[in-house]
Every structure is written in C-alpha cells, then in structure tokens.
C-alpha cells in the first residue's frame, strides 16, 4: 500500500480509530452504475493543510446518494464513495484548519470544500461557489470509516442534538431550512409538497418558525403524522377539489419531490407575491405560463443545499426547538438492504447507517 503518513503540515493526535499512521480507510466503493458496492481499503493520501479528518460514526442515506450511485444525473465519477450526511469525531487537523479540535464531534454534508476567495464565498454564499466540491462527486464520501472536508465545511454539533440522528440535518435539513431562512416572514402561510425525508423536516422547521403550515402529500397514511410534525392542514395531491379550494392562499410553497406535478395547479396555490421554491431534483422541465406568475406577481426559485452560515444557524435552531429527523437505523454493513428500502419508497422517514467497520 502506498505511504499514507501525513506531512509535517498536519497536526495529528493519536485517536483509536484514526488511519493516519498508514492503515488507510475502509469504504463502500461503487465502481459502476447500478452495481453492488464492495468494501475496499483506500489510501487517503496526505491531509491537506486546511482539511479535517473525521472518523464516521453515523451517516444518513439520502436519495441523492442513490441518484449518484446510478449516475442518474450524469455527473458521477467512478470509483465513487457515497454518503454525505456524516456525523463523527475529528481525528486529524491540517496545520491551517481553524476553530476545530481533535476529538470534537462534527457533521459533514453535501459540500466538502469551496475556493474561499471568489465573490460568492467572500459574501457568505459558499454553496454557490463555482468550485464548490460535492462530498460524493470527485471526492470520497462518508460510507466509510473516515471522511475529509475543508474545515469551514465541518460543522460542530450543538450538545443538545442527538448525534445518532443528526446526520440528515446536514443535507435534508439544510436544504429545506435554506428557503425558510431566505424567504420566511412572520405569520407566513407555508405549504410543503411531499412529506418524506425532506418534507417532514420542512414542516417541523416552518411550524417552529411560527408559520401556518399546509402539508400536501400523495400518501393518505401520512396525514396524521404530518399533523404531528406541525401541519395545521393536510391535503392529498390527488384531491383536485381540495387543492382548488386552497387557491391563492400560500405565501411560500416548498416542493421537495422529484416527480412531475400539475404545476399550474401548484402555482395557483400561491397568494399575490407568493413563491414556489423547488428543492426536489425534478428531472423534467417545469412548464409554466408567464401569466400565472405575472398577474399575481408570483415567483419560482430553487436552491442547492445551504451555505455554512445557514447550516450552522439551522443546527442551532434545531437544537433550541428540539427538531430532529424521524429516522430508522441500519448497520452500514447492511447498506444494500438500506438502499433497496430507500429505492422502494419505504424509508420512514430517513435512514441512518451506523458505521460498523
């Protein structure tokens, strides 16, 4: 195996699970689309001066992992190590890493690096950096014994959070919290389309912010659970009459699904100056008449996950308001069972993998 000893630029304190002495990482590796992953030893190479190394304890399983595994978006770089909702303890710090310490528990989400000098980074929108690095594309993710990131993308966890269930906050939670942070207003009427891994967190966050929340779901079995998450009203997406009765009533509507909808009817739910914000990766174009926007001064927008500042705010907010994902756990050694459950739409609501290398 190639030498993995860290350079003198890296500060390493011996920690039981650290691979820094040359043992390498263990990781679930995908070598082709739609094929089973295999456990392999990986040589991580020298730790960069601004990098941190994290021993993975837990990692959420996101539908984006499945999309990248299957190369649904055409951006996968094989061999790939997936997993981008990681929770673990820091085992090594580069010499220029700031604000973190060995042994500290942190989370790493959808992005693991950005250039730190462009206009977007310097203005706080690191997630919009033209050089932002996705944790699972061209970078080794967290279905592994260890994961690395730039220090600014490793987020200390508030002590009040249950760290075993916190992983999905790093991607799913950040993704739905971002539009609430950008466009949220007092006494707002917020709708959430899709009460799944992202949607159930959107309902929880919006309710905690004081919004009147309407949940729209294709599954009637989720009606009572949606109310338990904080929704005041729940409507089936197949209920055309029910949706028609809601026309013009929502100030902000967050769509978390990745399937086509009756977009004209969805936009019709918006009040004057209302906004449809799409965070679900819908593969097909969204057709819309300009008049349905123009005559009521409505808007359509979208966003990719969140900036470091918004993620830190979200974690603090979740800790203060006791907001946590609803999860089910699998040992990481049963990763293929977990992926099959996710692909079958049976996850309730987020799956977390417990590292057991």
Q: How many E-type strands?
A: 18
The shape is globular
Please tell me the CATH architecture of the largest domain by its name. Answer: Alpha-Beta Complex
CATH top-level class of the largest domain: Alpha Beta
CATH topology of the largest domain: Quinone Oxidoreductase, Chain A, domain 1
What is the mean pLDDT?
92
Major sheet details = 8 strands, mixed
Query: What percentage of residues falls in helices of 4 or more residues?
Result: 10-25%
CATH 4th-level superfamily of the largest domain: Medium-chain alcohol dehydrogenases, catalytic domain
Strand-and-helix sequence, N→C?
EEEEHEEEHEEEHEHEHEHEHEHEHEHE
Number of helices: 10
Integer count of domains: 2
Counting helices, strands and paired strands, the structural category is alpha/beta
Oligomer: single chain
């Amino acid at each position: 195996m190639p030498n993995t000893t860290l350079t003198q630029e890296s500060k390493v304190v011996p920690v039981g699970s650290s691979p820094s002495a040359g043992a390498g990482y263990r990781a679930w590796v995908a070598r082709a689309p739609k094929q089973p992953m295999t456990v392999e030893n990986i040589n991580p190479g020298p730790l960069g001066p601004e990098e941190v190394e994290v021993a993975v304890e837990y990692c959420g399983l996101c539908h984006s992992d499945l999309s990248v595994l299957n190369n649904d978006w055409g951006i996968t770089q094989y061999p790939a190590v997936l997993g981008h909702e990681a929770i673990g303890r820091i085992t090594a710090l580069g010499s220029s890493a700031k604000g973190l310490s060995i042994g500290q528990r942190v989370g790493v989400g959808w992005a693991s690096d950005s250039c730190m000098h462009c206009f977007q980074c310097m203005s706080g929108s690191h997630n919009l950096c033209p050089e932002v690095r996705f944790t699972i594309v061209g970078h080794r993710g967290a279905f592994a014994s260890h994961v690395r990131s730039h220090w600014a993308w490793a987020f200390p966890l508030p002590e009040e959070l249950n760290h075993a269930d916190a992983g999905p906050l790093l991607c799913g939670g950040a993704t739905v919290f971002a539009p609430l942070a950008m466009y949220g207003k007092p006494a707002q009427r917020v709708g959430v389309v899709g009460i799944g891994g992202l949607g159930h967190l959107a309902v929880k966050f919006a309710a905690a912010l004081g919004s009147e929340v309407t949940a729209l779901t294709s599954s009637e079995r989720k009606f009572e659970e949606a109310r338990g998450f904080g929704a005041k009203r729940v409507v089936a997406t197949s209920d055309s009459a029910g949706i028609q009765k809601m026309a013009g009533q929502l100030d902000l509507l967050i769509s978390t699904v990745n399937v086509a909808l009756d977009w004209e009817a969805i936009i019709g739910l918006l009040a004057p100056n209302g906004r449809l914000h799409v965070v679900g990766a819908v593969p097909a174009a969204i057709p819309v008449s300009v008049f349905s926007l123009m005559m009521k001064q409505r808007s359509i927008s979208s966003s990719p996950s969140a900036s470091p500042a918004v993620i830190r705010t979200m974690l603090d907010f979740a800790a203060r308001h006791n907001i946590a994902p609803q999860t089910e756990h699998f040992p990481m050694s049963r990763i293929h069972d977990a992926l099959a459950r996710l692909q079958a739409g049976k996850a309730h609501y987020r799956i977390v993998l417990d590292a057991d290398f």
